[in-house]
Amino acid sequence: MRNTVFGGLLHKEWIVLKWLLALIILLDVVVITLAPLLTKNFAGIPDTLYDTTHIIVGTWFALHIFSGVFMLFVSLKKEMKNLEMWLHSPHPMVQLVGAKVVFAILAALASLFFSSLLASIVLYVIGDWTMELAWSGVLALISVVLAISIKLVFMTMVGWFFWSVYKVVNSRTQFFSVPLIFIFFIITFVFWEQLRVSGLFDWLRTIVPVRLTNESFYNEHTSYFFMGFVPNGIAFSLGNLVFYLIISFVLLMIGSAFFEKKVRV
């Protein structure tokens, strides 16, 4: 794959971000294996170690939604110091950007999947589960990971879109760029909220829903993050998957077009 243009671009991203990814994997280990124990012992939390681990794992999983955006921004910041690649490359802007986006998403998903594997082992050991309960817990955990993965991809595309719009606006009017982008973000958020209130996402969730298990490992005390990610136990549906993929593709294309105006015009 490295012999192809896109494969070469992905390899370049690996060179740029490999140490950051290694650091994040290390954080995965520390947060899931050590943080619950240290929190319970030194913070004096009355919950059991199992409940404390559940809360910390849920929080860590939720933060992974933004991990793709974070890695993408780190990569962009490093290469914005030197615009020669963007200015003189014969390849389409969407290909150059696409490699960055794809690698950031793959790296973030790798961290999420590793975290889920580690969390399942830790929860199995300290939870004193039977094999039947363990299997139900694994299916529930997979449901959460799948739901978060879709949100992770979508959030990375949203981050790319707003970043590219900001760069274009900033190149035209530096003084007003931040307030203008903030206003644009608020308008977009209100529009998205109107879609949610209208019931669009509830309707999309009914189109070929995927529910891996009827069992639930959530409860209001330890797993309120998970309840929001997997409403009614539905990991995702074909309807919302297609919807988010289409919107993500549109954001990638529009963001690439905006960014091309910034670096090549």
UniProtKB/TrEMBL annotation:
Keywords: Membrane, Transmembrane, Transmembrane helix. The keyword Transmembrane helix applies. The chain crosses the membrane at residues 16-35, 55-76, 97-126, 138-163, 175-192, 234-259. The keyword Heme does not apply. This is ABC transporter permease. It comes from Sporosarcina ureae. The lineage of its organism: Bacteria, Bacillati, Bacillota, Bacilli, Bacillales.
